Amino acid sequence: MIGRSGIAVKTIERAASASVAELAKYGVATIHEAMGRVGLLAPAMRPIYPGAKICGPAVTIFAHPGDNWMLHVAAELLRPGDVAVLGTSSENADGMFGDLLATSFRSRGALGLVIDAGCRDVADLRAMGFPVWSTAISAKGTVKATLGSVNTPIICAGALVHPGDLIAADDDGVVVVPKARVAEVAAAAGRREAKEALTRERLAAGELGLDIYGMRETLARAGLRYLDDEAALERERNK
Amino acid sequence: MIGRSGIAVKTIERAASASVAELAKYGVATIHEAMGRVGLLAPAMRPIYPGAKICGPAVTIFAHPGDNWMLHVAAELLRPGDVAVLGTSSENADGMFGDLLATSFRSRGALGLVIDAGCRDVADLRAMGFPVWSTAISAKGTVKATLGSVNTPIICAGALVHPGDLIAADDDGVVVVPKARVAEVAAAAGRREAKEALTRERLAAGELGLDIYGMRETLARAGLRYLDDEAALERERNK
Amino acid sequence: MIGRSGIAVKTIERAASASVAELAKYGVATIHEAMGRVGLLAPAMRPIYPGAKICGPAVTIFAHPGDNWMLHVAAELLRPGDVAVLGTSSENADGMFGDLLATSFRSRGALGLVIDAGCRDVADLRAMGFPVWSTAISAKGTVKATLGSVNTPIICAGALVHPGDLIAADDDGVVVVPKARVAEVAAAAGRREAKEALTRERLAAGELGLDIYGMRETLARAGLRYLDDEAALERERNK
Amino acid sequence: MIGRSGIAVKTIERAASASVAELAKYGVATIHEAMGRVGLLAPAMRPIYPGAKICGPAVTIFAHPGDNWMLHVAAELLRPGDVAVLGTSSENADGMFGDLLATSFRSRGALGLVIDAGCRDVADLRAMGFPVWSTAISAKGTVKATLGSVNTPIICAGALVHPGDLIAADDDGVVVVPKARVAEVAAAAGRREAKEALTRERLAAGELGLDIYGMRETLARAGLRYLDDEAALERERNK
Amino acid sequence: MIGRSGIAVKTIERAASASVAELAKYGVATIHEAMGRVGLLAPAMRPIYPGAKICGPAVTIFAHPGDNWMLHVAAELLRPGDVAVLGTSSENADGMFGDLLATSFRSRGALGLVIDAGCRDVADLRAMGFPVWSTAISAKGTVKATLGSVNTPIICAGALVHPGDLIAADDDGVVVVPKARVAEVAAAAGRREAKEALTRERLAAGELGLDIYGMRETLARAGLRYLDDEAALERERNK
Amino acid sequence: MIGRSGIAVKTIERAASASVAELAKYGVATIHEAMGRVGLLAPAMRPIYPGAKICGPAVTIFAHPGDNWMLHVAAELLRPGDVAVLGTSSENADGMFGDLLATSFRSRGALGLVIDAGCRDVADLRAMGFPVWSTAISAKGTVKATLGSVNTPIICAGALVHPGDLIAADDDGVVVVPKARVAEVAAAAGRREAKEALTRERLAAGELGLDIYGMRETLARAGLRYLDDEAALERERNK
Predict the structure, then answer these.
(1) What residues of chain A lie within 8 A of the CB of C93, using their CB?
(2) Entry pTM
(3) Do the chains contact at D6 and F225, CB–CB below 8 Å?
(4) Which chains neighbour D (Cβ–Cβ under 8 Å, 3 or more pairs)?
């Protein structure tokens, strides 16, 4: 039913807000690692301006190329703190979303939009501080003619998103955390950050990852050979 | 004769300056809509720095990959307020334009450049405040060996541009308005903005596009069904 | 042996520091021209934030898609003023480099990284002022499982880089200067800049490149014809 | 758990073989339409030689860029009539599959492979008649170092595939049918083909789709205007 | 008015059939050269099977992404010998055209289709011998909801096409010849082929292009230097 | 000096013909593996028709976008059995090579061409049986205006090629073998093929790679867990 059209689900189960607040402390890269390196959207998904960072439950939207009708249906179903996430039935760069819809989404309390298509009015959106992650920027207008769905599972930029899953987005991209895993992932992210803080200090002090992570032996076992200089490399080449 | 080489037209008919000034008030997305959703250049055409916005008649340039000779021919034919627009005979990212040509173009009064190829010296151009919309940034130098044309009709990033047509460019991209339509489009853009200002207020106040645009009935007629919750969706899936 | 795995060369011959300092004055476009228009990396190589500019000898890294093991090996071999340069055995956008490695590289004195793959933690890197030129931004984590090499010749974004060659990078992209040519190229870049400064003045004063470069005759010889106006073009079309 | 590593599920529920045989009669485009226009893999997924057509339950494989270890794990779990389907954790074109694995897969009775990565030995595969749909052809070898999974849900070329779902692939691309829907979709595909056969006859006899589908009225209502000739168009342009 | 929607022009002026027959003798590369190297569609436009070659006047179609309504309108306006040519308002790979429309187009006498979008049922089209040049192959279905136009000027794969212009397509791609130039271009193509036949004979007999085209002197004047062997190159490098 | 223009080296040292003959027995994937997984050109390099396979020493050509002058210079320096290999100073798809140059190259005894640019007259080349590996097919004509080089080291599709290096090309792509390594690589390829022949037999007989390569233990050590069925996976998910 991924990609099924014609349905809008009114009430969805969202990730618990305490967990959302907890997870919101961490960056996308950390959350992705804490998940076990899953859940990342494709790197074509880029913020329309630098420095934005949001975290909230997904209201999912499924739409067709060049048709932004379902974004209006979604507006009504957004709650404060939500992140709208839109997947399409095929690749398309048209500017499905602009400052009017952003005004509507903001008045509903939405934090931002993740859209596997184009976005427009980006100067206005930057001025409003309404962040969008999109795969294109395009002024190309869209029609309102064909039904998609709201709050059904979608695929967005290669990732599966269920309504209510947690979306975290920053300058590195976008990651989705299944709602059932939010607390667990937040805890793992916290542990990771604590550990990384220590590592960062040691690295800043000049220690090497080779020593901190104990890589010298595994590298040697894998066969890494150190040559003294380029002359040694040249000799090897001519052997 | 699109793509014909070896001709430079000295005097072109430009869009009337009053109309240009009128149109310059509006953004690319608004103008594109006011045109009836035509005239947009492909979204690969991006500004080299954010925040630039220009509007003026086109001096058109046709060039070959890796050859920027005709930009020098164009310099002489630029008048204050013009926008240079360059199309190529095949796709190429070489840096055809840099700070020297920008200095020359500026001294002629040109507002900026739209180029279906690469641009270089972008830090200098940003410092000068000379905006360029290009499909690539590349330091790759070009030769001066093969004739193209200046002020003949060109295709740039998928759009047809006649010399003297109006070019509007901002963070959303670039749109071309045929010179004969400038006044009409400016008027339509004005009407659109006035209408959107009202809609924006209503949306900001919490009204929904569904109601403002009267979409509920058409959505229902198209077959949109609202389900109460995900359990209802699950039941449907198993039916 | 380009692409050979399992070797790390400890000591490399670097471009002389006086020459590096001299070359560091110039931009990538100027250096590329001074080289005779060679040595440029492909334009897909972009800085993760605008305004960065570095110049230093290359410590080269060869790695496999999705595997950042060799970046740790490289850290130990970096010296103050170096630029790390990474080529891969096949195209891949995974985020091989983030703030921890940047902390390590900085503590070794490295100026920045040029990577034919993805980068993550870009907000942190911007905050640290540690510049990276990459072909992608991606939070996707990588493994440490397969050997590559450090300080052997590599191909990065289509350019051949030997360890110790000089790397210059700015908003226009990245260029590599063979270490043996650094002094010569710096001199040529200086001559070019001096000449361009004069040209820039003349252009700013309204002189045309057509006259400064003496192009009018060559253009005429190549067959460029000036038509008075669009009506003349129309007549030609109908002949 | 999409993208979870380290698990291989031995026994999966496959679509019923009678339904598979029924569905195998139809092409990918017909099945995609019968599904309600869902389930299609992205068009980057192309057959390595023309004319191949397969249909069978999916054994799913999740792998990392440049690492084909899990294809060997999958070989053991393939049953006659199966189609192997591989998704990766990030985009990569390396040649993960060649004639040796094809020999192994064939000896297990597999019909073919759908791989969101590269394939090699394509001349041998064509000679063997072992079809592969891939996003690239590349001789680039891969390692066996990092665990993925077999028979867990995956995303392949933008489509969600559960183990045992039905995969149909031909010259038009690849579609996935959830196992629970196979019978229903086969029936719908049959009805569609029957109807299309009649339409095809009428179209071949010179009737127009405009009349067969009754489009004239809806087109007129949407505002389509017929002009007699290009002169009429020209008059309109100048109005 | 490029890209204007809602108009279908019933009668168009077509290139004269004698000239069409004359031009049909030549390949796309020859015609493109005979045109003065203009009129070529972008190389992304590829035939769905090798070996097809058509030449005929264009019936032009303008359509929106994911919407194939106007192809049905076009069917009625096709005459024997025509080539349908479709441009879109934005990039889209959906399969707008399949075997049913091909059956209809064929019954109208059309020779083939050039479409700046996707095509499906390609095995059937190959079997029918109905050639299509497209930018994608995709089974993705399309809707019939939004008006475009038929027989108005369009841009297709970067080339301007007026209704009635001549379209020639073969394994090298697609070229458009303005109807007013067909006779002239056919004559030029004939002269070119005659000349090339002589050149081909001389080249086959072992003469060099350097001598036939008299390039030795211009190469020398441009500065080409012949070195005897790689040792000489090495000496130069170390100078 | 990679990318240096204006030099043609007349006599180059070619790989020994006995070794070439030996290596010619093997496919590109086998040679790439025998090399230690290096030397492969990027997968964008594709044959213009299926089934071609060549192997011979490289005559290297460096050219600029849209300029095929140096192919004529190269023709004179080709010897029987050679493979011409062309790299460009920047990405470009123009059709630099067609049937006339192929006729000339064939009369010189060349086996084929590898070109990091476009090719045209592909139907003629297929009919002649003159194979080309290119990154594009395009009828776009090129000029003869700017010097490149012949028989200097080049980078082609991301691989370093010295004149005289061995080029092997087939349906899987193109690999370059440094001339000094040809004998060694041929021997390694032979050993690999012998070993693979045995493995192929065992796989065809139903043995698994897991057992032949002894992977079961390393997989277990890496943590691979087998679950009995999807219910077990579901239980795990909910733990």
Answers:
(1) 43
(2) 0.97
(3) yes
(4) A, C, E, F
